[in-house]
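Would you mind writing out a protein's amino acid sequence and the numbers that encode its backbone to help me picture the idea?
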Amino acid sequence: MLLAPLLAPLLAVAGPTPALAAAAGTAGNADAPSVQTLTAMKAQADAVQAQLIAGTKTLEATRTKLSALQAKAASATAGVATVNAELVGLRAQLGTYAADLYVHPSGQLALTMLASQADVAASIRGAEMLSIVNRGRADVLRLVVVEEQRVEVLQTQAAQSVAAAAVAQKSVTAQVAALQLKAARANVSLSAAQSAYQAELLRVAEARLAAAKAARDKVARALAERRAAALRAEATAPTAPVGSCDATSSGPYPAGPWGGYSDGLIPPSQLCAIVGGGRLRPDAAVAFDQMSRAYAATFGGGLCVSDSYRSYSEQVAVYRQRPRLAAVPGTSNHGWGLAIDLGCSVDRYGSAQYRWMTANAGRFGWVHPAWALRRPFEPWHWEFGHLADSGGT
């Protein structure tokens, strides 16, 4: 079969082309082929492949015909040999007959002798016997003639079959050469295009990596600048002591950002100290102190505060230490003075202290956001107001 060796080089080259075309991104190198160019070249390669397959089928049919002709020629040659062997025997018989005629010169003489017999009946019987003998010899002679004619026919068929086989062999050779040339040309053309296209894909990938790195560097610089600005703002913020808040410091305040400040950049003078330590927005601080006193009436001591308002730089430090729990700096409600983290068993889910907070915190405007029960689980985190979608730790 010629199909495998002819098609293997082309198929090996044409195979990856669809994946390359699908993976193409942007055009860059003017010397590299475009997606459309490669698609057209792939179509040409497919057409060559179809021609190769069709040509191979034709080639196989020609080879089958050649085999049949060769078999026919061989059969005719064998038949000639068989008939010639038969003719050898027949010609030997004819030679014997010729020798008999030489020894007994004429059949006519025998007839004359038979006719001279006084007994006509005996003469007739003698003539009949002579006719029978001569008839057998005539049959042999006719058979020789027939066999010689058969030899001529078989020799002619053998010669014609050999000539036709030679033509078919020449056609096979030409078809093989043409198919191999087509496969080689398609291989060279498509290989060159794919090499250029692979180089362009590599260039595009490297450009994308460089762009991504530049974007990451830009974000890192912006974050560094933001941290530096936050540190400068903290350093230059008024150093007035934290205010002492009472019931008259309850606002009103908006539900989210307030005071025209940024998250984590609220001056200490605008916050109020709370029982247990820490600072909060004034209205949140007043509500917390009231809740802490109610809690103390049940448990004999106020709420334990582990964290409250958190400056931007403090949030950066927490985020660096606990990135999976901490909110991104600038998005935490701790930075608005509206969130607290509690300890002393409140942070243990299902404890008596936790159940008390769940049952009573709402009376003072404090809630345990739903997200803190699942993503991530933070039983210690509580917020002032209904801020279910706000930032966490």
About this structure: The chain has a mean pLDDT of 75. DSSP finds eight helices and six strands in the chain. The two ends are 74 Å apart (CA to CA). The longest strand covers residues 339-342.
